[in-house]
Amino acid sequence: MIVTIDGPAGAGKSTVAKLIAAKLGYIYLDTGALYRAVAWKALVTGTDTTSPAAMERLCERIRLNILHTQDGGMAVEVDGLLLNAQIRTPEVTRAAAQVAVLPQVRAWLLPIQQAFGQRRDISGIVAEGRDLGTKVFPNAPAKFFFKADAAERARRRHEELVTAGKAADLAQTRQDLDARDGRDRTRETAPLVTAPDAIEIDTTKLSVDQVVDHMTRVIGEKEKAAGLA
Predict the structure, then answer these.
(1) Are strands 64-68 and 74-78 parallel, antiparallel or unpaired?
(2) Which of 125, 152, 144, 132 lies closest to 192, judged by CA?
(3) pTM for this one?
């Protein structure tokens, strides 16, 4: 069973995806962390994150592994180094937005994500990102697309950064988010769009519990329809 959750930054994808995965006994896949890991590697090696050729050469040298933590979360290992907080800084966030628009990087990460969805040792996955329902897992039985007011999304992201102990300005956070939205929606390769068969959920005024309860019911129906329940 594959559940996809797409949507812009700050819409609540990560929080809900982790809870859904834990509730259903599925595995959580944060595809954004993969782009962050590549961006982090580019920054520490001085690679130009806007250069398609330079990023393609970097990807060819990277050894990337997806790991899962005891609390049901996910971590990424790059060249033997386990990455966690390093890929959640504002600098990496901006660099990730730059590398994510490059077809070369997206093409390199695509089979890694799809191979994860083909694992036979797990009952299902909950994957969150921006092109999962349209590009990575187009045949997923359960697809969702989150949206929320831009101001609310900026507030959430700012709160997340502050809680993590990172210096963050709300106005700058909103500016970065707006810029990321523009790049994600207008890139030529796998832009951020709602899959035709995805269920849209506006999380602006909904509690996390409300979203989780609604999605759990829908996923249960999808499981039965697919003969997986």
Answers:
(1) antiparallel
(2) 132
(3) 0.89
The SS3 of residue 157 is helix
Q: How far apart are CA 113 and CA 135, in angstroms?
A: 11
Query: Are the C-beta atoms of residues 195 and 140 closer than 8 Å to each other?
Result: no
Q: Is 123 exposed, middle or buried (0-12, 13-18, 19+ CB in 10 A)?
A: exposed
180/90 Cα distance (integer angstroms): 12
Which CATH class for the 2-214 domain?
alpha beta
Residue 128's contacts (CB-CB under 8 Å, 6 or more residues apart) are 4, 5, 6, 13, 14, 16, 17, 29, 30, 31, 32
Burial of 60 per CB tally in 10 Å (0-12, 13-18, 19+):
exposed
CA distance 115 to 74: 16
Closest CA to 14 of 138, 135, 191, 146: 146
Tens digit of pLDDT for each residue in 150-200?
999 999 988 888 887 877 889 998 998 898 888 888 888 888 899 999 999
pLDDT in tens, 62-119: 999 998 776 667 889 999 999 988 998 889 988 998 999 999 999 999 999 999 888 7
Separation of first and last alpha carbons in the chain: 10
